[in-house]
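Students often ask why we bother encoding 3D structure as a string. The short answer is that it lets us treat folding as translation between two languages. Here is a chain of 185 residues written in the first language.
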Amino acid sequence: MFDGATRSGCGVAQSAMGPFYCPLDQKVYLDTSFFRDLERRFRACDAGSKACQFSQAYVITHEVGHHVQNLLGILPRVQQMQQRMDTQTDANALQVRVELQADCLAGVWANHAEKEWQFMDEGDVEAAMQTASAIGDDRLQKQTQGYVVPDAFTHGSAQQRTRWLMTGLKSGNPDSCNTYESERI
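And here it is in the second language, the structure alphabet:
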């Protein structure tokens, strides 16, 4: 966990990056200021609420999803493919599929965690969907620059992120998270 900046196997991590996974050292880096931003800046959940805790769990399990992708060899294959692509737009489109798969894997975790511990309350799923929506590329671009550039997306739109989170949550099956072969991301 860090606030401000820290060193990682992938270089210096700064708060502007938010939480991330570094495949080189196989660690998840959690920017604590990002979680405050979820509540205040993005209004993804009500500050201090149990639903906000579930939203935070979604963010964390999204990053753990990248670790799963790395263990399965998906991340290295994607990076190789991205290096061979002709345009940044194509590389970004592939990165979106990586991120949406991590969202779906977070949903799979939530499905199994709920069956095991029955910890979810009314409003938790809605808060997680609101979080997924709040950190969609379209929403973030609109907020920061006033307009949306889909070719520059790297994590997916609000609608895409919500859809894939719910796909994993409803199915509980990692096989439902194949964003690479899905025609509709």
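Translate back mentally: The mean pLDDT is 94. Keep this in mind for the problem set.
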